[in-house]
């Protein structure tokens, strides 16, 4: 009897398919509405389901897609708890219960419906339609797993978005960030999906994780996917200590019943009704779980080969947006040390995060000051992040435990740079040198040292050996026989221990007294006054000079009240800027 029923159903299905193919293009919007109403009224009209599914696609008019979407969503929503999992194998036994066959078929159609919705969401259709489609997908994420968060559907959605050609300001990404990332469980499963996608791009994901990624074969490039993952990570707000928002998108939250806290009365606010209120884990347990997923997502992402623009953007925000929320910030030590060793602007941008790990999380990096010394180049005074770099440089040199040779090398290198950097850079150098001299009295002799062979009492044995080893290079002449005025400082040396800074002097600062910019010459005079004072002068705030430029210096000069103005008097009115005697034997053509 069952086989006869199945044969009848198969014949009716084939007949209906032929009619649908014939009349598909002839269906109007009212016809689709009638098919949807019939599907909702009686189970006998189940053959309308494939017809409605065919109109869920980016190639159809938005009105048709929307009409089919409303009917199918109303049809599938009450049946979600009865469909079961899509991983269940189809019944191949001829004596299998027809009801089981029917539900298995419905489940396959539901999966097809979800895939069609995701295709529309990441297509180039109208923004209004795609936003409605996104809301429908998120409703199935909320209700499709018996009240718990349906992570499989949500992962397929994120996978399609990451591997699409959508721009970062697309309506789908904006809607996810503004409407759904406020929910704790959405953030939690976003971190899980982004970790899987990052591992897939890296090539280390398991086959079981790749089975759900039905869209990986169609993504245009790895670089676009990496940029999309970074955009998601930067838009998902981390769960902080003061985060009072514990709203859950799904009815039962993101944990199973056994994971729910039994001794707290904390209630979470659901999005729809008061009936959905329930218990969630304690704030401490919730924060621990969120930080763990947050850390795994970021660490997996940072293992990828990041494009240069993404690399710089990550380094610029890592110390504020990532490190405070990691479960173990020292996991970033490999990434940051490798970035710091690259050199140039990348090292400058990695300095902030590396400094936090060293001062707050006990990271030991023996070559830190050698690399920091190597970053002192003229180009750093024109870099975009120079203000932050100079502030960090001042902080790194604050410790009174720094050896004298190291403080002297930084002081001398900065002074030499002041000779060929813009006036704004010279002001920063003077401020840094001023602070170094105030913090390390053992290098006061650099202010005025006539002989290059002098070694102060504050010089350590290691410094004496370092200076002695450097004296053996060259022709072997005795230092006392060298001509006076020779600077023994090695500007090109990358190792601060071998620069001979302890045998030099800060003659560059005396040169700056005659700088063409009045602001620089005045600042040097104030430095000399502080050094000649018997009492210790206060340190200068480096941040007040870090953002200087020609425009700021000119603006400050125009605001100054000048008491004495130099005047030039001529017996005759000059007719040119230079006299003819200045250009003897020159011929100028007009």
Task: Please tell me about this protein's structure.
With 590 residues, this protein is mainly α. Helices cover 53% and strands 0% of the residues. The chain contains 24 helices and no strands. It has helices at residues 2-23, 29-41, 48-54, 62-76, 80-83, 98-121, 127-143, 151-162, 171-180, 184-202, 207-210, 222-235, 283-302, 308-321, 333-342, 344-360, 368-374, 386-396, 404-417, 423-439, 461-470, 507-511, 518-532, 550-559. α14 (308-321) packs parallel to α16, α16 (344-360) crosses α18 and α19 runs antiparallel to α20. It is elongated and about 110 Å long.
Give structural attributes.
single chain; 590 residues; mainly alpha; elongated; disordered N terminus
Number of helices: 24
Helix content: 40-55%
Distance between the termini: 112 Å
Q: Say how many strands there are.
A: 0
The run of helices and strands is HHHHHHHHHHHHHHHHHHHHHHHH
**Uncertain segments of ≥5 residues (pLDDT<50)?**
1-10, 15-22, 204-220, 257-278, 454-481
Helix vs. strand class: mainly alpha
Largest sheet: none
Which outline best applies?
Answer: elongated
